[in-house]
């Protein structure tokens, strides 16, 4: 199947970021078939317990804006899916060897109206965020029509966080931009269209889970609603706001291009000063990354790039999502109770663009990108996760899913 979708392989890094990972062919074993009856029994028992916890959680949250019991119920459900413990690391990119920042007095504790920036890989990440921060989730709304890509050129990087300098955490001049296409001689690009992010709307946890793997809502569609700027949502938010600048999920093998998600006023401040220091009442940025282990013959992949329901595209309609991602959930519970690995790396808040110690070299702020703040965050998340940045974006994911639909 990989050959059929070779044009969606990133030209600069050679990474295929959209196909759901599968175990290596060499790992297939007849032992898996022997375990099949036990797997089905485990799946049924786990599914009943998950449905019970989810039902009680839903009843407890009737009329509660923030939700009661997020930490308990979300962690319990994650444990039933095999995530008995989640490795959480606070990372300082300034420290040699990427050591945990024990000296920083700033705790990773986003408050009301702060922005959590993360890469997007799976619905399991949403459960972790719900358990850890009880945040406000937002869905991106994009324009229906495309515009010509930027005339600026940039080169792809093939190292983790190649667009940033570890000491400063800022993008270099030749860094891959958030809204610039790479044109590599002899390599076919998946698509050349660029469509703007018009804004966001708030969404509940279940809606976010159900839309895992799909492309953003389209402006004017039935479920899009009125798009709001990120700062407008943050001003009225009763909790931290989670934004995924990639806008879509990947298979956790590379980092997609970050879209223009931050307000124009924030971008202007960052472009002029090399930091986001607005003053009292500003939203602080908290950056984190998710890293999943690859699948094996005993454990299926925990990432979900391709949704498990691929009906006809309907411009972001709820009808399209169907029962997604229940089939993927079933594949996770139908395994022996072997621990699954999920690593969450939290960037030391002092090294975030809103941190007091963060000052980018003005010469390193890419003047050719629409959102230099998103570009800086992309470099930081890439360094944090050790995932290489690619020049593929959500528009490529849309074309990829359209091709998959046409072949079914």
From TrEMBL:
UniProt keyword Transmembrane present: yes
Residue ranges, compositional bias (Low complexity): 145-168
Region described as Disordered: 145-189
Transmembrane domains' residue ranges: 33-60, 66-86
Keyword set, alphabetical order: Acyltransferase, Lipid metabolism, Membrane, Transferase, Transmembrane, Transmembrane helix
Annotated GO biological process: lipid metabolic process
Coiled coil feature spans: none
A GO MF term: acyltransferase activity
Protein name: Phospholipid/glycerol acyltransferase domain-containing protein
């Amino acid at each position: 199947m990989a050959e059929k979708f070779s044009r969606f392989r990133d030209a600069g890094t050679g990474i295929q970021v959209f196909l759901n990972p599968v175990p290596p062919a060499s790992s297939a074993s007849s032992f898996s078939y022997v375990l099949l009856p036990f797997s089905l029994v485990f799946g049924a028992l786990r599914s009943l317990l998950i449905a019970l916890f989810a039902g009680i959680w839903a009843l407890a949250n009737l009329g509660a804006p923030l939700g009661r019991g997020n930490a308990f119920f979300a962690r319990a459900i994650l444990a039933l899916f095999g995530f008995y413990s989640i490795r959480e690391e606070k990372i300082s990119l300034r420290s040699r060897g990427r050591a945990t920042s024990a000296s920083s007095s700033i705790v990773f504790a986003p408050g009301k109206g702060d922005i959590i920036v993360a890469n997007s890989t799976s619905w399991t990440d949403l459960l972790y965020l719900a358990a850890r921060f009880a945040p406000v989730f937002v869905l991106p709304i994009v324009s229906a029509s495309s515009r010509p890509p930027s005339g600026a050129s940039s080169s792809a990087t093939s190292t983790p966080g190649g667009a940033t300098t570890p000491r400063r955490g800022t993008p270099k001049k030749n860094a891959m931009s958030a809204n610039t296409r790479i044109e590599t001689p002899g390599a076919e690009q998946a698509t050349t269209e660029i469509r703007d992010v018009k804004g966001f709307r708030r969404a509940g946890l279940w809606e976010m889970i159900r839309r895992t793997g799909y492309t953003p809502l389209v402006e004017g569609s039935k479920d899009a609603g009125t798009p709001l700027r990120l700062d407008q949502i943050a001003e009225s938010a009763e909790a931290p706001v989670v934004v995924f600048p990639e806008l879509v999920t990947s298979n956790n093998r590379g980092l997609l291009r970050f879209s223009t998600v931050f307000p124009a006023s924030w971008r202007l401040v960052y472009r002029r000063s090399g930091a986001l220091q607005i003053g009292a009442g500003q939203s602080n940025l908290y950056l984190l990354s998710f890293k999943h282990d690859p699948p094996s013959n005993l454990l299926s992949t925990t990432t979900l790039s391709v949704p498990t329901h691929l009906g006809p595209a309907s411009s972001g309609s709820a009808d399209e999502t169907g029962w997604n991602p229940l089939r993927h959930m079933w594949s996770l519970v139908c395994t022996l109770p072997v621990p699954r690995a999920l690593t969450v790396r939290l960037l030391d808040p002092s090294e975030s663009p809103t941190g007091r110690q963060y000052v980018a070299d003005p010469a390193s702020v890419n003047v050719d990108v629409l959102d230099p703040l998103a570009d800086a965050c992309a470099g930081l998340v890439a360094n944090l996760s050790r995932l290489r940045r690619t020049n593929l974006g959500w528009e490529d994911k849309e074309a990829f899913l359209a091709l998959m639909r046409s072949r079914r």
